[in-house]
Amino acid sequence: MSACPSAVETPALLPVLGSDVTVPLVTGGEVTYAALDYAASAPALRRVWDDVAAYAPYYGSVHRGAGYLSQLSTDLFESSRKEVAAFLGCREDDQVVFTRSTTDSLNLLAAALPTGTEVFVFETEHHASLLPWERREDTRATYLSAPRSPREAVETLEKALAGRDGGGPALVCVTGASNVTGELWPVRELAGAAHAHGARIVLDAAQLAPHHPVDIAEADVDWVAFSGHKLYAPFGAGVLAGRADWLREASPYLAGGGASRKVARRDDGGVDVEWHTTAARHEAGSPNVIGVYAIASACKALSEAGFDGLVARERQLIAKVREGLAEVPEVRLLSLFGDDAPRVGVLSFVVDGWNSSHFAAALSAEYGIGVRDGLFCAHPLLRTLLDSEPDEPGECGAPEAAPGERALNAIRVSFGAGTPDEHVERFVRAVKELVRDGARWDYRTEDGRCVPVS
Ligand code: PLP
User: With a 6 A CB cut-off, is 99 part of the ligand 1 pocket?
Assistant: First the structure.
């Protein structure tokens, strides 16, 4: 008789490139590299790499050639669009536009807003979500203060939307998971608030999509944006998916071939252009078919692996990191919504008496661990979390803040579907040893960064 299967099978790790890469240590010898900076860019899934390699000999122009390989590449490009739409649970009339990245997707949406649109965005957003909305004279941005709980986020948004004048177009932009704290935002509730007040909502899923299923219809959001390089598909493509109307009515993001259906000289010497009304309208130029196919391959691989198992395993890694860091009183985890708030595998912290750049440099040089330090392109959020004026890191070696004082920068550790337990275990051990014994090497500042003295 077979044993009763568990409700959620813990999956094996998803194989990624680079898992056997070794790096030198300043203290001597080599060690396998522990890539713990997934929130910046995740390694490519082996499956994505294999799919891309299998396609590469058949590479050809997209939407531009009569040859066999051009037709094959065009089919691949368009079937990738369908794969991404299925991954995101797109509604029938949604469009999937391929871009370069989340930043590009949100700038495209900002450029496509109807005249007079008022945009509401929390000041805690990544700069990619924070900054695109103030670049036009005919749209307006309102920045909302940092909420200290998911409920406060919804209340803050409701209050702001209730206070807006007139019934003109409005857009809310919100992140699904913070790139600093990893905390999950109450997307569905925020979408409900937005729609109740006649506003639309775009979800910045750059950090959410690699860790959690994103269903555009179920989340009830109007658009979703994400980047391939954070979704294990680092080939330079991104996605903006959602409502077609504003995109169809807007000027093409770039003017050029592919976006135009018909171009003719006018009698007065100018040109008349008929633009596409499909996603092609905003995809002028030869598209990045390899990047797009890589995203589709990653979507397929994650769906087939199953998010239940991926989330369950990631929770185990998060618990390991949190429990380990909790044993070091000098470490303070950064959080908006409280330490126990649900989150993805992204955690930021400061270490009393340490310069964050120095700490990150020692993790790399002495333990072969790659993390990120700094302000993570979210300066206003860091200002709130650190309760200080974020700045360039201080002189290496000297703590940027004395013990008990406020730090000016932070350290971020992040991981995902390709992270073995050993990487987070090594990270926790390294933090404990560095805090207890100090760095074993000397470091100096070079171009504003800490580097080991050679
Ligand atoms: N949004 C969030 C939450 C992010 O974490 C990032 C990148 O770190 C971005 C947007 C921008 O992504 P990209 O650099 O791929 O455009």
Answer: no
**Ligand 1, pocket-test mutation among 105, 126, 229, most atoms within 8 A of CB:** 126
pLDDT at res. 394 = 56
Options 3.90.1150.10, 3.40.50.960, 3.40.605.10, 3.10.20.310; CATH of 22-44+306-452: 3.90.1150.10
CA distances from 96 to 59, 235, 312 (A): 22, 18, 29
Q: Name the residue ranges covered by the structural domains of the chain.
A: 22-44+306-452, 48-304
Say how far apart CA 366 and CA 358 lie, in whole Å: 12
What gap in Å lies between CA 392 and CA 272, rounded to an integer?
A: 50
Output the pLDDT for position 340. 87
Q: What is the pLDDT of residues 192-242, one digit of tens each?
A: 999 999 999 999 999 999 999 999 999 999 999 999 999 999 999 999 999
The 3-state DSSP composition of the chain as helix, strand, coil percent (nearest 5) reads 35, 20, 45
- For residue 101, give the 3-state DSSP assignment: coil
Q: Catalytic site residue 173? A: no
**Ligand 1 binding pocket includes 183 (Cβ within 6 Å):** no
Instruction: Give the fold, CATH level 3, of 48-304.
Output: Aspartate Aminotransferase; domain 2 (3.40.640)
Contact 271, 265 (CB under 8 A): yes
Look at residue 5 and tell me whether its pLDDT is greater than 50.
no
pLDDT averaged over the chain? 93
Confidence of residue 408 (pLDDT cuts 50, 70, 90): confident
Distance 252 CA to ligand 1 centre (A): 23
User: Over the stretch 274-333, which tens digit does the pLDDT of each residue have?
Assistant: 999 999 999 999 999 999 999 999 999 999 999 999 999 999 999 999 999 999 999 999
Choosing from 90, 173, 299, 377, the catalytic residue is 377
Element (DSSP H or E) covering residue 158 = helix 150-162
